[in-house]
Amino acid sequence: MTDITQDQKSSRAFRSVRTRIQLDLPAEQVRLLDQLGQNLAVRSRADLIQEAIGALLWIVRENRSGRRVVSVNPEEITKLSHVVELASPALSLSADGGYEYLVVRPHPWRRQLYLKGRNLTVGQLVAKMNANKLTTEEAADDFDLPLPQVREALAYYETHRELVDQEFQEERRLLEARGYDFGPSALP
Hints:
Layout: H1 6-16, H2 27-40, H3 45-64, H4 89-95, E1 102-103, E2 114-115, H5 122-131, H6 136-142, H7 147-159, H8 161-177
Antiparallel strand pairs: 1-2
Helix pairs in contact: 5-7, 6-7
């Protein structure tokens, strides 16, 4: 059994404490919030708010240290010295979509990505893999997909599991309401 230091206990306690915050926003701001979340490839509104708080905190710290936060054309940045750049995983993914084999498709309620060249969402691929107990290689072979595409879809699922699982459950509810019976769920 390992000993846990007081710092580790405090860190665990801090991570496990959550407070629910309710916001009343006009419909237009909610639309903008959701659009920003899609552009940044975050899993939820909570993740988007955390990204926003992190960016705002960085700006406040830079201002308090006497620095200015400015926007610069990429070709001009080499002319500047002592530059500090804001780095965010969500921003880096959103720059070019971050994916080679996955694409965004317009849909009334679905936000997860689709496999490029297929009418197949990441969630549908994962559900079929789980239902048929397919390995990554077997799925690539069975669906006639490049192995890197299946790997990228699985990596996307791991980072967007909450969104994909919610949409899977929503689709299941919609189909069951139309009379379809599926038996046990194929997603974990």
